[in-house]
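Progress note, sequence design subtask.
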C-alpha cells in the first residue's frame, strides 16, 4: 500500500487545498484454502490443488489495480463563512464468480469458477465509486462565545453507485446488492463556552 499526500496551507490565504492518492499492490505466496472470498490467485483445478504448486507459486494477490484518491478544497469568505468540498474516488474491488459444489463428504462448498479480477479475459471488478461531499459553515459570536452552524451534504450528485454485486452463479449473478448512500443532509450547531 502506498499513499502520497499533497497539501497547501497558508494562514494568510483563504484557500485550502489538499490531495492524496493511494495505490494497492499485493504480492506473495497464496496458500490454498484461504477461502472463496479471499485473494487466491486463479481458479481451482488439478494444477493449483497440487501441494508442489502451492510451494512455488508467487505473484500478485489481486490481479488488477487498486487506486484511491481524495481531493479536499475550499475557501473561507470574510472570515465567517466557509465552503469545503471533498471529492473521493475508489476503484471497484476485484471479484470472481462462485459456484456451489454439492455431493462432497464434508458437505457443499463454494469455489470460484473464474479468475479473480477477471484476469485478461473480462471485467472482474465492482463499479468504481466517485463521491462529492460539501460543507457550508457560518461562524459568529453568541453571548461572547464562538458559535457556528454548518450544513453537510453527502453524495451531492446522488450517484447511487453500486458497491457490491451478488457473486454466486445463477440468475442473480452480478446483480447489485449494496449501493452508496443517497444524498444526505446534516445540519449542526456548535458553541464553545
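Output:
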Amino acid at each position: 500500500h502506498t499513499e502520497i499526500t499533497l497539501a497547501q496551507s497558508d494562514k494568510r490565504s483563504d484557500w485550502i487545498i489538499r490531495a492524496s492518492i493511494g495505490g494497492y499492490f499485493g504480492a506473495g505466496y497464496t496458500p490454498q484454502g484461504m477461502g472463496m472470498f479471499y485473494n487466491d490467485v486463479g481458479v481451482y483445478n488439478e494444477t493449483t490443488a497440487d501441494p508442489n504448486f502451492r510451494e512455488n507459486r508467487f505473484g500478485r494477490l489481486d490481479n488488477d489495480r487498486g487506486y484511491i484518491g481524495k481531493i479536499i478544497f475550499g475557501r473561507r469568505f470574510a472570515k465567517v463563512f466557509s465552503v469545503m468540498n471533498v471529492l473521493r474516488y475508489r476503484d471497484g474491488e476485484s471479484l470472481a464468480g462462485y459456484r456451489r459444489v454439492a455431493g462432497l463428504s464434508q458437505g457443499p462448498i463454494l469455489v470460484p469458477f473464474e479468475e479473480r479480477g477477471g484476469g485478461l479475459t473480462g471485467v472482474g471488478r465492482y463499479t468504481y465509486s466517485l463521491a462529492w461531499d460539501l460543507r457550508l459553515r457560518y461562524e459568529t459570536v453568541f453571548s461572547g462565545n464562538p458559535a457556528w452552524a454548518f450544513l453537510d451534504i453527502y453524495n451531492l450528485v446522488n450517484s447511487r453507485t453500486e458497491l457490491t454485486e451478488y457473486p454466486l452463479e445463477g440468475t442473480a449473478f452480478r446483480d447489485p446488492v449494496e449501493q452508496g448512500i443517497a444524498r444526505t443532509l446534516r445540519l449542526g450547531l456548535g458553541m464553545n463556552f
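Helices lie at 46-49, 51-56. Work on this subtask will continue into the next period as scheduled.
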